[in-house]
Amino acid sequence: MRKSEIMEGVECESSKIVANNTVAYIRKDGTRVIRLHHTDVLEFPKTGEVVFNSGGWKTVTTKDRMNEFQNVATIIQDRGLWYLFPSNKNKSARIPYFDGIIIKDGKILNPVDSHHDVEQILLKKIQKYCTELKTLQRLPVPSGGDCFMCQFGDTNMGDDHLISHLDELYIHGSLIFNALKHVGYTDPSVIFHMDIRDSIVRAVRKYFKAKLGLAS
Predict the structure, then answer these.
(1) What percentage of residues in the chain have a pLDDT greater than 90?
(2) Are 187 and 159 in contact (CB under 8 A)?
(3) H or E element: which one contains 36?
(4) In b/e form, how buried is each residue of 202-213, taking b as 16+ CB within 10 angstroms?
(5) Which pTM was predicted?
(6) Is 111 left (phi over 0), alpha (psi -120 to 50) or beta?
(7) Pairing of the two strands 50-52 and 22-26
(8) What CA–CA distance (Å, rounded) separates 124 from 146?
């Protein structure tokens, strides 16, 4: 993305490209910001805090940018979950990551109950869904009888909508096509009709994780 696209609608005093799809800029109040695509992944207020925010996109690139452009903590991924290690703490003192977490002088200023229990449940549901998809004798073809919302394509359909598909093991062609488009297949019909099942399952897994804000 060009800097003008990344910074569209953002008011700032100055800005510069610091990495691929990444801009460092300064707000009018003096807050320094690292922006990846359209998400401010790191904020550095003048009062000394550091604020972390994935914007729901817990990708490898997001984690790399967070780790590269600050030195108060390290974020790691373990079994599909993100953890944060304050730099001045013992390595065993890992903290479940959450968007909006604020650190100053090695302390979490806004501790909350961990969301990891919920995330682990979702990961298990996604795994069960993908196992069911992998063992289907025949892939369901997209049709007018599919989920009405999924027929509109890769839109912001909301957590409840997608979680209901996981709960019901509702596997349909429109969702599979959306997943293939999401991971970059410009013509999903090719891989769909060839039934390259492993690639399809990987795409569906990544799709659910991305849409539900889980680490990819």
Answers:
(1) 83
(2) no
(3) strand 32-36
(4) ebbbbbbbbbbb
(5) 0.83
(6) beta
(7) unpaired
(8) 24
Question: In this structure, what is the dihedral angle of CA atoms 63, 69, 71, 77, given to the nearest 10 degrees?
Answer: 10
Domain range annotation of the chain: 3-108, 116-211
Are 166 and 126 contacting, i.e. CB atoms less than 8 angstroms apart?
Answer: yes
Nearest by Cα to 146 from 194, 178, 123, 119:
178
pLDDT the model gives residue 99? 95
At residue 113 the predicted structure's pLDDT band, cuts being 50, 70 and 90, is confident
Most distant CA atoms of the chain, gap in Å = 59
Structural contact between residues 61 and 19, judged by C-beta atoms closer than 8 angstroms: no
Q: What are phi and psi of 15, to 5 degrees?
A: -155, 155
